[in-house]
Amino acid sequence: MVAPWHYLSGRVRNGPPAFEAAHGENVWKYASKHPELSELISGAMACDARVSVPAIVNGCAGFFDGINIIVDVGGAKGTALGVLVKAFPWIKDKGMVIIVEAVIREDEDSKFKYVGLMLDMIMLAHTNNGKERTEEEWGSILTKAGFSRFTVKPIHAVQSVIIAYPC
């Protein structure tokens, strides 16, 4: 996982993606051939969920009122879903998508600001086009995806809860 960092300066100068330069293919193809990396990525995401989802439960419990069905998109180990279902036992596993992602707050003096920027550097080193986004960038993505409006609810974690409303 360190090798891509040696190629980061080339990536910043419009070179090939750092992970591909180090390993010859993107992180997802590489992980599919290297179960130890796939397990490391899954474990990291589960660790992240163990921190961020309790913050969602504590800071956004009202969002789940009236919700009966939920889907954990990308939940390799089901950690996030397990925490949510335990906190809100009436929820079943299907139907609703919750966006929980880092939102870079450039103008805010948040204790998580530099953590978000560090995550952005990790995305730059380990993915082809991945990056953390500002609220304005999230708005652009959601508008292009057909949502009429959205709100961002910061929680006590580097991530925020993004609620998008369909047209």
Automatic annotation (TrEMBL):
List, alphabetically, the PROSITE patterns matched.
SAM_OMT_II
Q: Which UniProt keywords apply?
A: Methyltransferase, S-adenosyl-L-methionine, Transferase
Q: Name one GO biological process term.
A: methylation
Q: Which InterPro entries does this UniProt record tie to the protein?
A: COMT-like (IPR016461), COMT_C (IPR001077), SAM-dependent_MTases_sf (IPR029063)
Q: Name one GO molecular function term.
A: O-methyltransferase activity
Taxonomic superkingdom: Eukaryota
Do the record's keywords include Cell wall biogenesis/degradation? no
Report if keyword Cytoplasm is assigned: no
Q: What protein name is recorded for this chain? A: Acetylserotonin o-methyltransferase
Give the source species: Thalictrum thalictroides (Rue-anemone)
Source taxonomy lineage?
Eukaryota, Viridiplantae, Streptophyta, Embryophyta, Tracheophyta
